[in-house]
Amino acid sequence: MTFDWTNALLMGLVVIGNVLFFVGVFNRGHGAGLGKIGLRCIHWAHNLGIFAGNLAWLVLAGLTGPRLLWGGSWRDLSIWLRVYAIVCGSALVLWLINLVLRKLTPRPRQIVGRTVERRDLESELTQPARGAGPYRFMQSVPGNEFLHLEIVRLELLLPRLPPALDGLTIVHLSDLHLIGNVGLPYFQRLFEIARSLSGDVAVCTGDVIDDMELVDWLDPTFGILQAPLGSFFILGNHDWQWGDPATTRNRLATLGWRDAAAGCTQVEHHGATLAIAGDERPWMGAEPDWSATPSDAFRLLLSHTPDNFGLARRNRVDLMLAGHTHGGQVRLPFIGPVYSPSWHGVRFASGTFWTDPTLMHVSQGIAGRHPWRWNCLPELAHITLRAGPPESTATVSR
């Protein structure tokens, strides 16, 4: 009996489908607002599903039973193995369809300008940028770009922006994950650059601290970034799971930052109203209350996860800024990100998205619990708002 290469290829496709299925479970589990125990169960399901599932498939279908690898017939598979193969094959087909759709989707017409400046901050610093955090072994992964920075300058055309707010600028950063893997000098340099961008408004969309022993790092970082119209923050799932939300909120407040999740703030500028609110769900807080917002106000929502995009649209939010997904941290050639903690998988991993009446920008974040980035640099965004006519179609950039 000779080795059957055709069956080996087909079995390999089932293996790929298995991986994609459990990656999907992992992504959506991390978007569900679960606590540490729930996430641990998701991790075990992911790991066991991929390794044990594929090993069982190889042994029960390829080496024993119908012995597909040695010319056996697929018709001899047991009902359970048939169901398994169908589920994995369906996962692969759906993934391919979504990949093609993402590649064919044009970027939003609301993006009228976009430039990117890439810098290696580690080479700019005289002090060590690498920390001694719990996952420091990942710092040595070849090609790791976790100490680089991508400064994204966006010019966005927004249909409901009052003419008086034309030219308003926002500095957006997200997901600092202060845990010690990235040293304080890196973050100090990051905030110096953010300050030099001279935004009218500064915002941070969550996941500030993973280790509360580093709370004093907030002073030389957040403490130096003050915007003329205000600096606003929300917290994220890591602040909830690993940190102390009350302490973090109080410390940021003493540094002049406003808690956008505490309620809707109305900022008057040149006779127009900018309404800013925050949404930390599904981990903390409640739905933002826009009831007191003037009908002609420009609505800016800070949301930790992009999964709140639908709610933002229902509340007629004009611009939503989010983080949480880190852009996937690793982006494969052509394929892009694979892991993205969202109910939508990698659809909103990073970039700019439009579905009437809301434009959303999702940051790639600054850091993470795991200091590993490849083809997905930490992001600091400078956004310029422009008043303009409405556009159409739901689109994504990148």
Please provide a written account of the structure:
- A 7-stranded mixed sheet has the order 1-2-15-3-4-5-6.
- With 398 residues, the protein is α/β, with parallel strands linked by helices.
- The protein starts with a helix and ends with a strand.
- The protein has 2 domains: 100 residues; 286 residues, 4-Layer Sandwich (Purple Acid Phosphatase, chain A, domain 2), CATH 3.60.21.10.
- It has 8 helices and 16 strands.
Give me some keywords for this one.
single chain; 398 residues; Purple Acid Phosphatase, chain A, domain 2; seven-stranded mixed beta sheet; 8 helices; 16 strands; disordered C terminus
Task: Compile the SSE list and pairings.
Layout: H1 5-29, H2 36-63, H3 79-104, E1 111-120, H4 121-124, E2 148-158, E3 169-173, H5 184-196, E4 201-205, E5 231-234, H6 237-241, H7 245-254, E6 257-259, E7 265-269, E8 272-279, E9 298-303, H8 309-314, E10 319-322, E11 331-332, E12 336-337, E13 351-355, E14 358-362, E15 379-387, E16 395-396
Parallel strand pairs: 2-15, 3-4, 4-5, 5-6, 8-9, 9-10, 10-14
Antiparallel strand pairs: 1-2, 3-15, 7-8, 11-12, 13-14, 13-16
Helix pairs in contact: 1-2, 1-3
